[in-house]
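An instance follows:
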Amino acid sequence: MKMISNLRNRLLMAGAMLAVCTSLAQAHQEAAAFASVPNPLADKVRAANSRFLDVKAATSEGYSPIPCASGITGGAMGIHYVNGQYLKDDKIDIARPEAVMYEPMADGTLQLVAVEYISSKGPASLDGQLFNFNSAPNRYGLGEFYELHVWAWKGNPTGTFADMNPKVSCEHATAPSQ
């Protein structure tokens, strides 16, 4: 009787483990499928802003770094290089993002992962994609604004336009220099 009970427990445990593994595999496949779905806006953003693959292009165009931004529940946005002139003009131009976002790598380099468009006028949109509204007060110490992240260089399993990317980390961030 004890042997049958042990066998039944092992079978139940094996079944539970199989269910967990199956769920994880399905989630991985869904994330991979999402990442492979073409996104016309991300393609346009990539074409208009690939000059920023080298961070020197951002600094030469007046962008300055602010500290790496990470999320409370994980993931990050990376180090934002912000152009103060573009922030002030409230114009939405695909080739002039208000912020260019880089992930700090272990070797000290910065990898371009996304751009961010910001406007205090709204509701705002770019190529039909609505911006997210941020009320005041907010963690940035700014007034109300609208923003749109476009993860054009690093896939984001939570969405091309999500704020945080669970695949991005601030682990290797150092204090930004200007």
Summary: Residues 11-36 have pLDDT under 50 and may be disordered. Residues 52 and 60 are 10 Å apart (CA to CA). The longest strand covers residues 110-119.
